[in-house]
Amino acid sequence: MARLAPFIRQDHRYVLLGTAVVAAIGMRLSSSPRPVLSFMRYAYPVEVVMYALLAAWLVLAAVGLVLKLTHWDTYAEASPLASPAGRRALRLASYVVWAIVAVLVVDRIVMGVATAWNVAVHASSRPANDTLQSILYILYQGRDTFVTGLVTTVELAVIGTLVAFVLALLLVFFRIQTIDRPDNDFVRFWKRVGSGFARAYSLVVRGTPMMVQAMIIYFGVFGLLRATNMSTTQINGIWSTFLAGLVTITLNSTAYMMEVLRGGIESVDKGQAEAARSLGLSQWQAMAKVVFPQGIKYSIPGLSNELVINIKDSSVLSIIGTFDLMFATTTVAGIYYQQFQTSLIAAVIYLVLVLIASWLLGRFAARFDVKSSPVMSSSSSHVTADGHAAAELEE
User: Fold this and answer.
1) Contact 324, 315 (CB under 8 A)
2) How far is CA 122 from the centre of its chain?
3) How does DSSP assign 102-157, residue by residue?
4) CA 394 → CA 257, 331, 376, 380, 391, distances in Å?
5) Which residues, listed in sequence order, are joined to residue 382 by a DSSP beta bridge?
6) Are the beta carbons of 106 and 38 closer than 8 angstroms?
């Protein structure tokens, strides 16, 4: 509430109207049925008083609105609510209203969820007449399946992103190579080959869906191994769906992270590379000691964003049978024939994962004092530091 005080002092009318909305929500909660674990069920007189106070605030807000409409130009002088004493009284009263609504939120919503969870845990079959209890029952009964899928999703996203970062560093080094005057024919040839391979790799991977890539990688390798007369059991022992999913995420992220890194490197002032060359450093030394460290720093927001993307995009790997969170969701949904409710559970889990990853990555970026800024990406698009491309052709 202390954070609201400066805002309240600026214009008490916002306090009246804003808190009136909160009071209306509180009255709606107070009128709703009490859950079994409600702590207000034995304090009915207290809740009546709370309801009356919320209603009184709505009346006060209505009076303030009428005074404003009838004394539009002289409201500050005509309304006692605009006086210093009236503002202080409104501020204190608004604290009371917010506290009452907070109590009602805990009593009706939090304790309501606790009641539903208690019923779901002890139920012998899925409660069909209560959606919340049904969702919690599915979550509790399928907890082992969801946990297995959750762990697999985190492993795929984290390991795939880390390995992709290493490969992206290698590829972006080839991608940005230019012919230098001292280079002999052998070096010139391999620079062209490396740069051409990096360009083609980026074009192919970023131009095809990850789902299609997963199917090509899994079934392609499976077919190659099958051509060696290995049995299906032997192949599954060395080429699992988890490994195929990890390879897919790694190769897919490598292309995107390579372009983000290239954008960060190209955002470094070219004068720094020229200054390094003038001091006697070779092109390789200038890139490794001067340009690369700064380019990586500028690319941190986009690189970290790839982890969040991989957490969500790993869901497509269920198409090849990878037991990730999406595959676990489909499995549980098939048991209870509740696609909608099970998908809601998966959505909440994915959201929590993304929020946790975003918070951790935000803290990581803050240690480097990195801010979101536009950096260059592919030759035909601009990419901001958070990794999102906007179709804007370069001239």
Assistant:
1) yes
2) 34
3) HHHHIIIIIHHHHHHHHHHHH-SS--SS-HHHHHHHHHHHTHHHHHHHHHHHHHHH
4) 20, 47, 10, 6, 10
5) 376, 390
6) no
Lowest mean pLDDT among 55-69, 93-107, 134-148, 324-338: 55-69
Q: Give the span between the Cα atoms of 355 and 363, in whole angstroms.
A: 12
C-alpha to C-alpha distance for 117 and 344, rounded to whole angstroms: 16
The string of DSSP codes covering 235-265 is HHHHS-HHHHHHHHHHHHHHHHHHHHHHHHH
Q: Which of 300, 294, 270 is nearest to 283 (CA)?
A: 270
Question: What's the rounded Cα separation, in Å, for the pair 346 and 352?
Answer: 10
Q: Across the chain, where does the E strand assignment appear? A: 374-376, 382-384, 389-390
How many CB atoms are located within 10 Å of the residue 296 CB? 18
pLDDT of 296 > 70? The answer is: yes
DSSP assigned state of 184: -
Q: Which two tokens stand for residue 303?
A: 């690189």
Sheet with 382-384, strands from edge to edge, namely 374-376, 382-384, 389-390
Per-chain mean pLDDT for the chain: 83
Q: DSSP character for 322?
A: -
| AA letter at 221 | V
Least confident span in 71-85, 138-152, 204-218, 250-264? 71-85
Which strand (E) or helix (H) includes residue 31?
Answer: helix 12-31
User: What pTM does this model have?
Assistant: 0.79
Residue 169 near residue 198 (C-beta atoms within 8 A): no
Per the DSSP assignment, residues forming a β-bridge with 374 are: 384
